């Protein structure tokens, strides 16, 4: 049965998708992921990890959802799935995808919506949609292009080829490749480090990058002036600068963990 589990490790929301045996992306995962993101936001999570505890991260969409639908019906159910992609991108905290095994089609698109991707050494990536005569319905083609450029993105989608974690890392789609046994611990450790940082600044950075990707650079500059200046009113900035001025740059750098970021 498809389900999504949510637990909190300090201020990190850990989301685990469960849909054996193929870990297919279906309506249950859409509902579960949206609920997990809502609860994480309400509980003021400061980072999130999305993972699967099975041998595979995702085998892609459950294609039985594609049958007996006309264009309008397809648009309606895909709009619900797209809500998950937007919720991840709009979440007020960084989201890490920790992927392993098969990371295909909708599963890859889910990972691409995250701020960055950590992959186990055994991960196999593919946008397989062309094999069944469809395209990437959740933005895979152009979200790949954001990371690796349009030429490589087109190759990945047109050929429906299968690619290794190392190849995706060389193309800047994957941020880090780690041993299989270390994947979840590594992702959680980085998420914990992020969660201890300045939450307001991180949320603004996320918004700035998203704004720049969907607008032009000059518009992003205006957005920065209008929105990012909010950090000047945060306790986190004043506490950190106060520590720097009191103790000097050397201690500030070497003992930075002494600074407590309250997220406000």
UniProtKB/TrEMBL annotation:
**PROSITE patterns for this protein:** ENOYL_COA_HYDRATASE (PS00166)
CDD domains per UniProt: crotonase-like (cd06558)
Query: Can you name one GO molecular function term for this protein?
Result: isomerase activity
Q: Which UniProt keywords apply?
A: Isomerase
Q: Which SUPFAM superfamilies match?
A: ClpP/crotonase
* One of the GO BP terms on file: fatty acid beta-oxidation
Which chain positions lie within coiled-coil regions? none
Q: Name one Pfam family in it.
A: ECH_1
Indicate yes or no for the key word Zinc.
Answer: no
InterPro entries (alphabetical): ClpP/crotonase-like_dom_sf, Enoyl-CoA_hyd/isom_CS, Enoyl-CoA_hydra/iso
Family note: Belongs to the enoyl-CoA hydratase/isomerase family.
Please give the name of this protein.
Enoyl-CoA hydratase/isomerase family protein
């Amino acid at each position: 049965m498809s389900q999504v589990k949510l637990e909190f490790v300090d201020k990190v929301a850990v989301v685990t998708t469960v849909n054996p045996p193929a870990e297919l992306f279906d309506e249950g995962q859409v509902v579960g992921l949206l609920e997990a993101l809502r609860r994480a936001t309400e509980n003021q999570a400061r980072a999130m990890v999305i993972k699967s505890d099975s041998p595979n991260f995702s085998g892609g969409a459950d294609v039985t959802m594609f049958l007996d639908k006309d264009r309008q019906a397809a648009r309606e159910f895909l709009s619900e799935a797209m809500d998950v992609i937007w919720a991840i991108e709009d979440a007020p905290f960084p989201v890490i995808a920790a992927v392993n095994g098969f990371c295909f089609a909708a599963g890859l698109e889910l990972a691409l919506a995250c701020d960055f991707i950590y992959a186990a050494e055994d991960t196999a990536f593919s946008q397989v949609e062309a094999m069944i005569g469809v395209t990437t319905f959740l933005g895979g083609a152009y979200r790949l292009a954001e990371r690796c450029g349009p030429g490589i993105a087109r190759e990945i989608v047109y050929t429906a080829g299968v690619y290794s974690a190392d190849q995706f890392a060389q193309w800047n789609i994957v941020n880090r490749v780690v041993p299989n046994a270390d994947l979840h611990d590594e992702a959680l450790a980085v998420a914990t480090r992020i969660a201890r940082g300045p939450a307001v600044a991180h949320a603004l950075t996320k918004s700035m990058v998203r704004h720049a990707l969907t607008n032009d650079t000059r518009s992003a500059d205006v957005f920065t002036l209008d929105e990012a200046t909010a950090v000047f009113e945060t306790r986190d900035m004043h506490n950190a600068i106060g520590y720097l001025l009191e103790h000097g740059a050397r201690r500030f750098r070497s003992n930075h963990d002494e600074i407590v970021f309250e997220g406000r």
